[in-house]
Amino acid sequence: MRFAADISELELGDYQRAVRLLLRSPLITAAWPDERALPRIRRFSAQLRQDFSAAFGYRLELHGSTARLVRALDTLDPQRPAVTRTGRPFDRRRYAYLCLALAVLGRAGIQITLSELADAVASDANRITGLGFDADAGPDRRALVDAVGWLEERGALRLTDGSTASWAGDPGVGEALYDIARDVTLALFRPARVLQHLGSVTELLERSMSDSGNAERRAAAQAARRAVVDSPVVYYADVPPDVVNHLRGPALPADIHRLTGLRVERRAEGVLLVDTSRLSVEQFPGTGSVAQAAVLLATAMADRAIDPDRRRVRRMAAPDRAAGQAALAGQVDAGLPAPVRMDGDPPATSPEHGRGHESDDVARHPFITDSFLTETVVDILDRYGSAFGAAWHAEPDRLRTEAVALLARFGAVTPVPGGVLVLPLTGRYRNTVAHVRQRALF
User: Fold this and answer.
1) Residue-wise DSSP of 295-308
2) Which residues contact 343 (CB under 8 A, 6 or more apart)?
3) What local confidence, expressed as pLDDT, does residue 338 receive?
4) d(CA 324, CA 233)
5) pLDDT of 271-320, one tens digit each?
6) E strands within 193-290?
7) How many domains does the chain have?
8) 25 domain-assigned
9) In 181-246, which ranges are E strands?
């Protein structure tokens, strides 16, 4: 028994819930994600700190009323954006205002008004080419309010008087007063490296720097466990060979089950963690029109890929993962201010997380065209009309786009020009049968 060694069988279920809680919400405060979360973490803090370090290479820090899981990243992941209270992903302006607001709060006292915060953010933002902040401009005010709302949700700010909405409507009339939780603001910004010394965002990614064989094997085992708990599905072709060896080994499923209470499902192409306890924020299959359309779309694509009565589908190799990571790193690095770049420090290249096996026999996946996807979504709306609202019937293309995006986030398809490539995970839903609940007439 390598993990949860000091946890009794009676407490194991509670301990596993604490592990899942930290994996889902790396920042935990007295208010975020709820008031019961922090006591659960404190109850097992010593064992959690030990197991997260040994199993994943993560560091658990507890300060005051805050717990922060400092994670090690192996790849850049664009699928986990910060979102507003209405569920909209942050854009660059909102991210910039969030960072500037954190900087202001770090040097503020115990309270601050929204106007004071806006003035301080404006002072910094107006010195940054291409950013700026104008309190009289509605889009700028709304962007700052979204950043403040993100901090308020997590307990970094607590509204004590006034209204954020009134200030957003008219900063000359409305006002809001906040208490500042300093332990939360300090926990939110925990860079692994001094940012001024970075030549590229890839320098923040995990790298094993040891020449010891045992240390390399330990690092590969941690990377394998991180991949399983961080990704909806892990394909062997997408990770290095030393990580594949651990993914195929007998110890990993037992370790993950002991820590999380969840089971690992292993197939010829890769592994996935069967999420029966809401480990991830978003689940698939799930509820809602987009999720339901995505399942039905996956079923149709899986059937089309093996349909013997229709024209054989074209097969293509998936886009190179390492090239995609390099392109994503380039987009992030484009926002690095020129004065921050250190002379003599060339930008780091993305670590090799591409295909794990160099072989001429590259896996090829069925290519499904956009026209087939569009026809299928229209057919789904016709067949299950009452199950989808009038808004989706009016915009079938939007339903298709969001359903495909959901499937891509969970590793079931890869979007390519003109369509998508159907990945092995889609085969799980080949025999899905839909049951539509009939609405009562009276």
Assistant:
1) HHHHHHHHHHHH-T
2) none
3) 64
4) 18
5) 999 988 878 877 788 888 999 999 999 999 999 988 887 888 999 998 88
6) 234-235, 263-266, 270-274
7) 3
8) no
9) 234-235
A 10 A CB-CB count for 259 gives: 23
Task: Give the separation between CA 5 and CA 51, rounded to whole angstroms.
Answer: 9
The CA angle 200-204-209, to the nearest 5 degrees, is 110
| The two three-digit tokens of residue 224, written as one number | 């394998």
Instruction: Let me know if residue 72 belongs to a domain.
Output: no
Q: Which domain holds residue 316?
A: 289-320+355-429
Is 173 a member of any domain?
yes
Residue 340 placed within a domain: no
Task: Kindly report, residue by residue over 221-276, the tens digit of the pLDDT.
Answer: 999 999 999 998 999 999 999 999 999 999 999 999 999 999 999 999 999 999 88
Query: What CATH number does residue 122 fall under?
Result: 1.10.10
User: By the 8 A CB rule, do 41 and 48 touch?
Assistant: yes
Q: Are residues 181 and 264 in the same domain?
A: no
**What does DSSP assign to residue 319?**
P
Q: Where are the alpha helices (DSSP H) in 57-113?
A: 92-106
Question: pTM of this prediction?
Answer: 0.86
Token pair 């209270």 is found at 85
- The answer to whether residues 140 and 224 belong to one domain is no
d(CA 439, CA 433): 19
